[in-house]
Amino acid sequence: MRVLTYGRGQIRIEGEPVYLSNLEPTNSYPGYMYGPVVSHLNKSGDKYRDDAADFLKPDKLSSTFKLRDYQKSALNSWASRGSRGVVVLPTGAGKTILAVKAIEELQCSTLILVPTIVLVEQWMSVLGQAFNMEIGALGGGNDDIQPITVSTYDSASIRARRLGNLFECIVFDEVHHLTGPTYRRIAERYLAPFRLGLTATLPKEEAYLDIIHELVGPKNYQIGVDDLAGTHLADYTVKTVKLPLMGYEKAEYDKQFNIYRGFLQKRGIKIRSPRDYMSLVKRTGRDPEARRAITARTQAMDIAYNSDSKVAYLKSLLKANPNEKALIFTRQNKLVYRLSREMLIPAITHRTPPEERKEILRRFQSGEYKRVLTSRVLDEGVDVPDASIAIILSGSGSNRQFVQRLGRVLRPGPDKQAVLFELVSAGTAETYISARRKR
Question: How confident is the model over 91-115, as pLDDT tens digits?
């Protein structure tokens, strides 16, 4: 007789060691190995007593939600691999509905992990409507555990020791967040044998993909924006507009960027990737010249990101489309606040109180507001079905961020034609950032 017990994020097996194909013999495993360990024991025919899991049991789960053809394919692919793995769907393609049907198929307790409080509320609303039951919530002052519970990653990480053996399934919304060391511990310490990762874009780095594969499972299914545009998503166009800096801006940009470029040439440093740049940043703590070079580059890029040419073009673009609802994204909060004051457009940043943010989005969705300014807090998880224009004044080189911002305007509507405008300062390093994020 073998006995499985659970504590401190590990399964301990009393008795003879259990052998798994890819692990050394041991009597202790991280929590995420609970599923494979139990599966192995069941196949071996060995007798065991499970004192590790204490899974909550929901009432019968049933919803009237219907899946589209590609969602059915995604769900079948995931289920055929032991209900473990990642599904990649574009923003607006119905990842939440897919998760609802996955939970319904499994008929088990489920913890849904999301990166923000706004998403906790959105998921709770959909799940409550789907199953007509009370949905638990963790985060933002909530501490309510139910068989179906929605939590922020932060709250689930803090409560891992208390909650790790209560849920039979975990849904990782925006699963790319799991690659961070703190959030990674959630997947390591929770027992949940069934795991569903959802995202619009997976990390490109092999090391991060390996982490997700190990903790959640392999990529089960993927479909892209272009495959769904015009049918399940709106038709769209991406327009990159390159705008020259003003004369005084160009002079100061060149002055500062030449300081940075000169330092690289002097030291024989080549910046080929974000990792190379971060290595240079680390040198600033011990190298005054490196610090001066990074400061100069920052000043140069501030000019490129926030140029007056972009602001003038934005004003003319909005004037030419008075009836279209537009989301305006910038890299830096200072431009958000500046434009909000100048153009009397409501703004949402990380400093915006939750109730104010909710009210702005409500008015935007109803059409009372036609424009909303933001930095990065609306990149993920904002449901604005009829926004038709996205304008990127500045952003990072992240392909994920670009896809997410495009996704904000791809939700379908009658004869809808979505447009994403990307404003780039010509003749600056921002052109390379633009190219990188669209690869």
Answer: 878 899 999 999 999 999 999 999 8
The residue to which tokens 């915006």 are assigned: 352
Residue 255 lies in a domain: yes
Q: d(Cα 280, Cα 264) in Å, to the nearest integer?
A: 10
Residues 8 and 144 in one domain: no
- Label residue 200 exposed, middle or buried (CB < 10 Å: 0-12, 13-18, 19+): buried
Residue 56 forms part of a structural domain: no
Kindly provide the residue ranges of all beta strands, DSSP E only, lying in 200-243, ordered along the sequence.
Answer: 219-222, 235-243
Distance CA 127, CA 149 (A): 9
User: Do 145 and 164 share a domain, yes or no?
Assistant: yes
Going by DSSP bridges, is the β-strand pair 142-144/136-139 parallel, antiparallel, or unpaired? antiparallel
How many structural domains are present in the chain? 4
Decide: pTM greater than 0.85: no
C-alpha 65/C-alpha 46 separation (Å) is 41
Average pLDDT, the chain: 87
Looking at residue 149, which CATH number applies to its domain?
3.40.50.300
Under 8 Å between Cβ of 407 and 380: no
Angle between helices 288-305 and 430-437 (to 10 degrees): 80
Q: Give the domain range for residue 164.
A: 69-224
CA–CA distance, 343 with 340 (Å, rounded to integer) = 5
| Burial zone of 181 (CB within 10 Å; 0-12 exposed, 13-18 middle, 19+ buried) | exposed
